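Hey L., structure's done. Input below.
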Amino acid sequence: MEQKIERVLVLAPHTDDGEFGCGGSIAKFIEEGKAVYYVAFSTAEKSVPEGWPKDILKTEVKEATKRIGINPANLFIYNYEVRKLNYVRQEILEELVKLKKEIKPDLVFLPTLNDLHQDHQTVAAEATRAFKQVSMMGYELPWNTITFHTQAFIKLGKSHVDKKIHALTAYNSQSQKEYAREDFIRGWAKTRGTQIGADYAEAFEITRWIIA
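Output:
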């Protein structure tokens, strides 16, 4: 039985989390004509490397999501303080409930509930509350997890991985990070693809799955 998915919502605690966790899937859904919405909760101004404008990540997420094909009108950027999302979790929950009513997504991508980062945990927990009647999949960020259950996979083609990498290269301020390297991103997608007999894939934990 095929689940009909037309409207996809990607929740990123910080700019670039969504592209790392499910960028290939975003590219694939857009290629298939689905409406994809992207929400970034923090532009991490206090974590921007020295020498860069404090609001650089706001500029970079706009470029990255444009490269991957997301309509600029479908990009939502909040300015919550990095590493302190748990201080405003009720406010975040209320914003998520508003987004649910406005977007009416069929599928929500969010950080895995096993993510160790405090901001990621907050977004994952509040999203699970807000979207409890919607199908949800938790994406993996290997550098933030000890345990990740590969319960679902989305097959990708080379073009989808290429678009993911192209989008992530928009984050020039973050290029020094090891996990931003092209060989890692491509190898990660290749590894997940090998698990299911495909060239490339992204893996997810099932937070909730609803079949209409």
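The chain has a mean pLDDT of 97. The beta strands are 7-14, 35-42, 75-77, 107-111, 135-139, 152-156, 200-208.

-- N.
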